[in-house]
Amino acid sequence: MEKRIIIAGSGGQGILFLGKVIAHAAMKQNKEVTWFPSYGAEIRGGTANCMVVVSDELIGSPIVKIADYLIVLNQASYNKFMSRVTPNGYLIYDASLIKNSHGRTDINIYPVEASKEASLIANPKLANMILLGSFIKLSKLIEIDKAIETIEEIIPAKRKEMIEINKKLILRGFSLFEN
Amino acid sequence: MSKLYLSGNEAIAYGLIHAGVRFITGYPGTPSSEIIPTAQKIIKDQEIKAYVDWAINEKVAYEVAYGACLANIKSAVTMKQVGLNVAMDPFMNSAYVGTVAGFVVISVDDPGPHSSQTEQDSRFMAMTAKIPILDPSTVEEAFEFSKKAIQLSEKYGIPVMLRSTTRISHGRALVEVDDQIIKQELNPYFKTSKEWTKQLSRFAATPKQRLELHKILNRKIGEITKENIPRLFFNGNILILSSGAVFSYLYELIEEHSLQDKVTLAKFDMPYPLSRDTLMSLTLPQNTTLSVIPRDSMSREISQNKEKILNINKTFSRIVSIEETYPVIELQLNTEGRRNGIVPKEGELLPEVCEEILENLKLIKKRKIFTIPPLKRPSLCPGCGHRIALYEVKKVFGKKAIYAGDIGCYTLALNFNVTDIVLNMGASVSLGFAFSKTFELGNKNQDIVSIIGDSTFFHTGIPPLIDAVHYQVPFLLIILDNQTVAMTGNQKTLSTSKNFLGECLKPIVIEDIVRSIGINFLEVTDPYDYEKSLTIIKEAKKFLKERKEPAVVIFRHLCINTQEGLKSNPKKSVKISEELCKGCKFCINEFECPAIVFDEGTSKAMIDKTLCISCGCCIYICPTKAINLI
Hints:
The structure holds 2 protein chains of 2 kinds.
Chain A: E1 2-10, H1 15-28, E2 32-37, E3 47-55, E4 67-72, H2 75-81, E5 85-94, E6 108-112, H3 114-121, H4 127-139, H5 144-154, H6 160-175
Parallel strand pairs in A: 1-4, 4-5, 5-6
Antiparallel strand pairs in A: 1-3, 2-3
Helix pairs in contact in A: 1-5, 3-4, 3-6, 4-6, 5-6
Chain B: E1 2-7, H1 8-18, E2 23-26, H2 35-45, E3 51-54, H3 58-70, E4 75-80, H4 81-86, H5 88-97, E5 103-109, H6 122-129, E6 133-134, H7 139-156, E7 160-165, H8 166-170, E8 172-177, H9 196-203, H10 207-226, E9 231-233, E10 238-242, H11 244-256, E11 263-267, H12 276-280, H13 312-315, E12 318-321, H14 328-333, H15 351-360, H16 385-397, E13 402-404, H17 427-441, E14 448-453, H18 454-470, E15 476-481, H19 510-516, E16 522-525, H20 530-547, E17 551-556, H21 563-568, E18 574-576, H22 586-590, E19 596-599, E20 604-607, E21 627-629
Parallel strand pairs in B: 2-3, 2-4, 4-5, 5-7, 6-7, 10-11, 10-12, 13-14, 14-15, 15-17, 16-17
Antiparallel strand pairs in B: 1-8, 9-11, 18-21, 19-20
Helix pairs in contact in B: 1-2, 1-7, 3-5, 5-6, 16-20, 17-18
């Protein structure tokens, strides 16, 4: 089993963080993982993306050419990466920010009102965690418990409040879809 | 042993410390900047006695780290590829003089380039200097090769380069690392050793003795060449030679397109030094009928079977080098590749580009090509002190002034027309000198403003300013002091008073330097103080006109991308009045704050509350006074 994920949006939307949580959670399930960011620190406020590969075997290239899963948080990234989803692959996007206009019929498309849902619980900047929850439910690639565990580990304990909010958002995103 | 989830740069730091390196210096530069902070964390957490910290520039960093190895402490220096240009003098020299303890030069290349001025190849520079290179293909190899580099350096008494690239340095993967770091007694010596007198002809060599050192260097390189054997994968008629990240892509593509019986893939862990003999002595793994070497063995040595020596030209129909970024293997072994157009001459060799190359070799058919729409361009953070500072400078000097920029976040001021030229670190000051002199020669009046950051000023901005004072060349030097190396991820500058262990450092004061070299106009201002800043810039302009000598204005405001900076920043919420906004887009084009967006529906500017940090700077800029405090 080898699954390739692209996560894309603007700088500041928590793109890299979302990828990091997926990678860490997969690691907890004894998978091989690679994580690759799109930019160095010298690009501020531009478009951000990261690529995560989760596999049972050693991974050769961390760069994702064709993705099994695409998670997008802005229109530009939606347009850019749409064609990179493999047939029967998954597209999960923030429907509060993106208009679905491409109409690919050979992939599974899941609009999520992520910014809206996030603003109901905390603030719209945390849409990434809603999408993470939905991704976990739809992909079944990582376990929700492992994602929660990861959040507890990588957010410093002194920001306990943040941990709780993130958990709530992940669970909300998870509950948006049926089994 | 435990498995850690590390970036390539973190893996290098772990590799170095595990190999016994106890002295690391460098200068920050994307994509190399995380090596030193990671090494600092390791030595702090594990209470290891070592010196790990930044230097003022790469040349100094190189000399300091190299000096440590001459005093018998294993050492390393880190930089990005253009940093190596700055360190070229000691780099070339150190190859001749050789090492005492192990010494690794880490230079991280940026093919693409993603965040550099050039996509030059550090391997080429090492070849010029006659320094062997290790070129990791994965994050795991970045860890292994750091240790290997020290071993190689100690075995031959030669500096060894570890060349990484953006993809390796910034990618993350699982790396198996020993839990315990062996603590060792450090035993520095220099001149105190018995053989010292014999060493003097090496450490302080005259030109004549240098010739002897060159011979010794050539001998070392010859020996290393002999033991530099590539590893072979697959079994086909076309031989592809590769190293670094590109090897990983090619490996996957060969599997993906089932080319195992069409291509033999050779991996060079060490792309220099090579000889044509290397190619002639390539041996296939024991079972020559095998088509695929299991992936698990990728990182292991393949048994070296020397029984079956192949005549390369007969066995392989073509030999092609596919490597990032310049033709290093290709030129040494005289193969096909960049020179005959099989491999693109510029740009990063991403998997899709490698596929194109396989297409050029007629190994696969034409595929669907992805088109990428333009990305959003980068811009300064909302609330950044540089933005308002440079807006103020533009306000006084206007669009006709020549703005010579430099390397730092503030390069992005070109988005709102306050930077006309950027060359390399420190060049803003030299260009200010150059333009001022040339316009003077042509009897033309021209306002010239040079813009440099605090860290870049320390790095290489000081010598050209001394020249400007000495020759009395009038231009305004703006020093943007945010007390951090912001662009590369907020490393500390020389203005810091504590190191990472909490030990006291002597902060270097920019004003003291500027005054001491004889600058007669020096003012310091916080750019958030709009009126005061404007007055100072106007005074500076007047000074330049009257006195015909350089002037310096320091804008000091903490980087708002640091916790400290954000905490101490004033909170002034703003709103844009829909009635007063005429939709002229002046704020969008001439100030370019990401938090001010243009609503195409209403044709008015509005504040994006999710991005705005309430710095309140934009209230000064609107021509119709539509932006106001709440």
